[in-house]
Fold each of these.
Amino acid sequence: MTDTNPTSDPASGPSLENLLHETRSFPPSEEFAAQANAKAGLYERASAAGEEFWAEQARELVTWQTPFTETLDWSGAPVARWFGDGTLNAAYNAVDRHVEAGHGDRVAIHFEGEPGDTRTVTYADLQQEVSRAANALTTLGVRTGDRVVIYLPMLVESVVAMLACARIGAPHSVVFGGFSADALRSRIADAEATLVVTADGGYRRGAPSALKPAVDEALAPKEGAPETSVQKVLVVRRTEQEVDWVEGRDVWWHEALAAADPVHEPVAVEAEHPLFILYTSGTTGKPKGILHTTGGYLTQTAYTHKYVFDLKPETDVYWCTADVGWVTGHSYVVYGPLVNGATQVLYEGTPDTPHRGRWWELIQKYKVSILYTAPTAIRTCMKWGDDIPGEFDLSSLRVLGSVGEPINPEAWMWYRRVIGGDRAPVVDTWWQTETGAIMISPLPGVTAAKPGSAQVPLPGIAATVVDDEAKPVPDGGGGYLVLSEPWPSMLRGIWGDLERYKDTYWSRFEGLYFAGDGAKKDDDGDIWLLGRVDDVMNVSGHRLSTTEIESALVSNPIVAEAAVVGANDETTGQAVVAFVILRGEHANRASTPEGAAEVQKELRDHVGKEIGPIAKPKKILVVPELPKTRSGKIMRRLLRDVAEDRTVGDATTLADSSVMDLITAGLAVPSAASED
Ligand code: WT7
């Protein structure tokens, strides 16, 4: 029962003080530095050139239909316009121009299905398939500006569908396949999508898992829910499961594409044309539709992908393990790598199917040279032991990336030593759905890396740590991470809610973008991310809102009140722990071990249905009361103490200071704290 958490709010993990005195340093090898894309001069150029630096990147990395003459227009702050008078097409940049440059035979995607089926897709293949899909979407009535929801497993078709939308200028909104029908319904409604792309199912842990039923349910009339705007559902056949079919609405993907012309003229759109909307959890119950536009987003994803991963498109084999349902999949599976003409691996399944060496086997098989994954996966593999990766030849790896949550130094060291053979540089990359692209990261070949720290803002990025009064903290100090200059891939708002955009990100500190993360600067001025300071949790690198899960819980008739906290978890970073007060007679149900287990299962399933399996609480504790301040605010800090098995901290501001005794006394009955 040790409290090693000096900042009570952020989920800072083990011993921050030790972290901040990290003495291990891994400077780049001479060989790596000599061949690296990034040289130290990039920082100098960026600070000397100001916004012109981004204009240079935009001209070098992206092909424009109409060249831009304006770089940044910040007069409508906090909504930026980058490269405003330029026009371009994202799919053309990701596909066609590589074919035109003579690289049509280059592999764009090595697809590996979970059952072991494979497919090799060259840039020329991709051009044909994306063109067919764009024509098919057009035939099905999708016009430039219409929104298309994509709800698919990790398939080649997922990438094709996204690019087909981009090709006709129809913003896509990808919804992660692990979200429930209800979550899908609310996203479809908010985006007012007219078409949904889905699949019969996908392979998950060795078995086909259905997907289309969730779409059918999301589109079915529901009392109290608005009528859906969806006209057509395009269905990819993956598992050949039986599916219900709505005549006139449902169309097979393979039939629509076979009937479509393989030639399609990409639609040139303005740089600020919406490219996609991606929903993410905020501090309230309603997910936010983060809006990204075309020119700036492509520029910065390509720029970061080139320099942070040191990509050499002719020789590297790149693999980002993220699902396209998250922003990492958007920026570093689809747009960044393809705009850069990379060859990449796309894997449908989980790391432990059919065995725990599957990832390493894939790295050996495809000679992957750049790997980008999340700390939670690294920690899981670390737990499984060194022997498993030891069985495979990982010598092709030359850059290792980490993203999604703070990476603890132990996991960082293991990643470098066991996976990277003590040779490949590790880059810990900080960014968000909102930032669109990596913002803080070491540059391989330049930065001497420090285990556990994202360290320095990339060239062109102004990130700093400020105190409550918005004053930058000195080295050694802690506070909040802010971004003080606009950047090309920044969000352009929250879909349909400009006020919420201003309020969420720009109201805390005048003129500064508030990221929601706590951070410290060590004595060298390097940045250490400490976790969220708001009601957002980070479970396995996925963002979940405490409020959203609380709303899901109280929507169950047996629950009177609920409070959710993110407790530190060795593997997943944070774990969802819920405290619930049951209604009237139901309270008695939890008084026996069996009854409590039943209630917990019922509520976990309920959250799974309302939001999705990823949001299911790891623990549900039935309590008689919740700790509240006199103004009625739940003191999550105290609940976190309970959830993390610590002595409960200062409870003097509670309206009723005996509540915590009541809660901890109740939990002493082992039945109520069962885990599954
Ligand atoms: C939040 C954003 C960026 C793609 C995946 C998550 C946390 C992200 C790091 C990192 C410490 C990190 C932050 C951030 N986060 N990367 N390298 N070190 N924390 O995107 O779902 O928008 O979540 O993830 O708390 O605010 P997201």
Amino acid sequence: MRDFADNDTIAAIATPPGDGGIGIVRISGENAGFVADKFFKAAKKDFSVLDFRTHQAVYGKIIDDKGNIIDEALCIAMWAPNSYTKENVVEIQSHGGSLVVHRILELAINHGARLAQPGEFTKRAFLNGRLDLSQAQSVMDIIQARTDASLRMAAGHLQGAFSAEIQSMRHSILEIIAHLEASIDFPEDDIEDVAKQEAEEKIDAIKNRISEILKTFHTGRILRDGLMTAIIGKPNVGKSSLLNALLREERAIVTDIPGTTRDSLEEYANIGGVPLRIIDTAGIRETHDKVEQIGVEKSVAYLQKADLILALFDASRPLSQEDLDIIAMLKNKKGIVLLTKKDLPAQIDTEDLQNLLQGDFKYIRISSINKDGLKELEEEIVSRVYSGNAGQAEGCFVNNLRQAEALQAAQKHLEECLNTIRMGMAEDFIVIDVRSAWEKLGEITGDTVDEDIIDQIFSQFCIGK
Ligand code: GDP
């Protein structure tokens, strides 16, 4: 039997709020077993939680302090270090009513656990060395992934594909430092020039590798956060129909933004693995029943916010003043022009628009009703998002700004380092810059990162993760 310890033990509801089939309360820390044992009674007589084998699922009852039965449940103990946090973890699986799980959480708190902060389980996994910082961040990306490609990227990060790249560069940098320092310590050995030349070659190679990784940021960011897409066009041009055709894709995931009662403001469509984050879907749908005056200011802001502009023109009707207003708004922008209602006789042509529209646009004719042209639209979007990164494994893509900034800073230090070498300066100076690059890369894996940054990263997680 285990002994009671003073270490902080945390508890939280791990399943989403609301009613569900199963609800899970998770407890982690030295005393997780003691806490759970106070209110979980196994069906088998005299079978204390503390005596459960690790990962054994045990059936029993949740009993409150007055002896009342709260629910039937399964209890699983995962003893350190073979758990998510590497601490003792106990998970209670009860029926998924929100009152039930809250009562169980309350019992855990009354018996010595404290309420976990957002992301605290994963933070402990990181602090206990189970995951590095980049892997820990990918846990959140997995939870929020909206397409297979986003999920492949996040899962690759969690498996450590990206971390391994960074670690391998850090390792090479350490070797360079060791070499340079040897030549500082033993100048008479005449290894100085060789060391410098070798360092120069290796640093150049690492710098190039960083540039390659940074090229994936554009794609990585979109796969993680979605491609902010603005759909613009006069009333009745076919915006809602296109939106419905895109969202009706079988794998499309529609997310309601909490707090909005009717249509959500943003929805995600899965376009060939790219999460298309469509801005203001409610606004687009509203135009169906009320002829909306396109406020110029509003539209300009809307277009500015977007990574991708989809501009719609009704090909079955001559261009109207409203179309011309939109054309003016699109001046010097880039995106995709969609000539809608391809199934009807055409009144305007691609060339008509090309002559009027000044900007960088690809033209595609579509019919939302026949689903015609949608494949071409999908291919165009995918090729834009993956430009330069097609065929590469998403698991090594850099996908968040903090990591991209650390890579940029490391690259800059390596650049300075090369200048120092080329100027014929002493090894000491070279070492300073290489070491800074090594530290910057360590911020990605979490080896060299401030505590407040760690706190800030985990605070973005949900409670119970
Ligand atoms: P919105 O006001 O821009 O959102 O336009 P809607 O999507 O509501 O479409 C306006 C009208 O055009 C509706 O009656 C649609 O059925 C029709 N429509 C939309 N797309 C097509 C299309 O591809 N072909 C045809 N023939 N009609 C379409």
